[in-house]
Structure formats: structure tokens, C-alpha cells
Amino acid sequence: MNEFEKEVQSKRNDAIDSGIGFVVGFGFFALIFIIAQVIDLAL
Q1: Per the UniProt record, which residue ranges are transmembrane (predicted)?
Q2: Residue range 10-35, pLDDT digits in tens
Q3: DSSP string, the chain
């Protein structure tokens, strides 16, 4: 057995971490899109 498999640093579920990463990335691009729409509407 690999020595890294014995002592894992994080035992959290990877699906939770990737879900959080997806939400953060999606929220960032949605925020940029909303800002662009507000600027387009104002001008």
C-alpha cells in the first residue's frame, strides 16, 4: 500500500469540494454578466 494512502490530509468528500468550486466559478461569471447588463442598460 502507498504511504500516502495511509495518512490522508483531508477525509472530506471530493464531490462537495468540486460542487463548491463550481458554484464559486459560476457565481463569478454570473456577477460579471449582471454587471455588464446593468452597464449596457444604463448607457
Answers
A1: 20-39
A2: 788 899 999 999 999 999 999 999 99
A3: --HHHHS-S--S-HHHHHHHHHHHHHHHHHHHHHHHHHHHHH-
d(CA 27, CA 38): 16
pLDDT attached to residue 42: 93
pLDDT at 1 over 90: no
Cα–Cα distance, 31 to 43 (Å, whole number) = 18
Dist. CA 16–CA 24, nearest whole Å: 12
